[in-house]
Design a protein that fits this description.
Layout lengths: L22 E6 L5 H17 L3 E4 L6 H10 L1 E4 L10 E4 L6 H9 L3 E4 L3 H15 L3 E5 L5 H7 L6 E4 L2 H4 L10 E5 L5 H14 L13 H14 L4 E5 L5 H12 L5 E4 L15 E6 L5 H13 L5 E5 L34
Parallel strand pairs: 1-11, 1-12, 2-3, 2-4, 4-5, 6-7, 6-8, 9-10, 9-11
Helix pairs in contact: 4-5, 8-9
Length: 347
């Protein structure tokens, strides 16, 4: 089956000889996580069930290709719910929304479908619980990210954002005996733990969340690229610029031994000069990236002589999430065959 066409597929890499043997180290796991798969399928099913247009607040997931494909199918992406006609269907993205957004959608009579990743919902519930007990919540994450805005919106009077390990050195709290940390789910594990270490140095009674907030998929992809990076001259990360976990993969690759690492949305963004003298190329993708985009990178690498592909597997992933309740049955009331899962992940 031919690969789908994507922008700029005419440009190809040249097969220029290098001293050693050309090969690819392909990280696994990579690509779609269960939360992303659920969210994308939710938009697809909403279009099938209710017809176009279906509105989506923000990008359903942070990937240019996915958003473009869904737009072509009839999805309309908006920044805020006041852009949506009253009574229309709206899908909340995988990154989650604050209670204020939920209320605003209800006030407009919108028919909301919540595609928030269940692992993000877990963090929201933790924020509500700790705020109820009057804890100050130190939320580790990136200012302006939709997930951070949604989590902070659950307890705005109790949340203080900590954007980096350096900020941990200067943050002030009301009561050092009642403070807890939570985090955005897509951060660098190493950097987050360094931030927590610095916070605990200043606030010894700092409490941990009940379980890891950084999601399993983010952690697994970082573990895999650490192993790949040790043997790679160059690492290619497929993912979009606004994808926090994709950007982190580039940083982790460089930190763990890759001589160079670049992020691309599409294969045609790879540049010939990146491959000068490169024998081993590592390849991975962020948690919101469909596997077809990785296939296209591998196809272009093959034209440049990198045909020997070795998979570096560090974990198996078989987690699936149920679709939002509004989409578990078809228009005739029959249970949808995809209600308890989707296309799955790359193990």
């Amino acid at each position: 089956m031919p690969l789908p066409r994507v922008p700029g597929r005419a440009g190809r890499l040249q097969d220029i000889p290098v001293t050693g043997h050309k090969r690819v180290l392909l990280a696994a796991p990579r690509g779609y996580c269960a939360g992303v798969d659920r969210a994308v399928i939710a938009v697809e099913k909403a279009l099938e069930r209710f017809g176009a247009p279906v509105y989506v607040r923000k990008q359903i997931v942070h990937n240019v290709h996915v958003v473009t494909e869904l737009e072509a199918a009839g999805a309309i992406f908006v920044d805020e719910v006041d852009e949506v006609p009253p009574g229309a269907h709206i899908v909340f993205s995988a990154h989650g929304v604050s209670p204020a957004v939920v209320s605003a959608a209800a006030d407009r009579g919108l028919q909301a479908i919540d595609a928030t990743c269940p692992l993000v919902t877990k963090v929201h519930r933790e924020a509500v619980r700790f705020a109820r007990d009057d804890f100050e919540i130190l939320l580790i994450g990136h200012e302006g990210h939709e997930e951070v805005e949604g989590t902070a919106g659950e307890a705005p009077d109790h949340v203080t954002l900590v954007g980096s390990p350096e900020e941990a050195d200067t943050i002030e709290v009301r009561d050092p005996s009642k403070v807890v940390w939570l985090s955005q789910t897509t951060l660098s594990v190493d950097e987050t733990m360094e931030t927590v270490r610095r916070l605990r140095t200043r606030f010894p009674q700092l409490q941990d969340p009940p379980s890891d907030d950084i999601c399993y998929a983010t952690q697994n992809r970082q573990v895999a690229i650490k192993k790949v990076a040790r043997g790679a001259d160059l690492v290619i990360v497929v993912g979009s610029a606004n994808s926090s976990n994709s950007v982190r993969l580039v940083e982790v690759a460089l930190e763990y031994g890759a001589k160079a690492a670049y992020r691309v949305d599409y294969a045609d963004e790879m540049r010939q000069e990146w491959f000068d003298g490169v024998e081993t190329v590592g390849v991975t993708s962020g948690a919101s990236v469909p596997e077809v985009l990785v296939d296209q990178v591998l196809a272009d690498l093959a034209t440049a002589g990198y045909r020997d592909v070795e998979q570096v597997k560090t974990a198996e992933e078989d987690l699936i999430f149920s679709l939002p309740k509004e989409l578990r049955h078809d228009s005739a009331g029959q249970r949808d065959e995809r209600a308890l899962g989707g296309r799955g992940t790359t193990a």
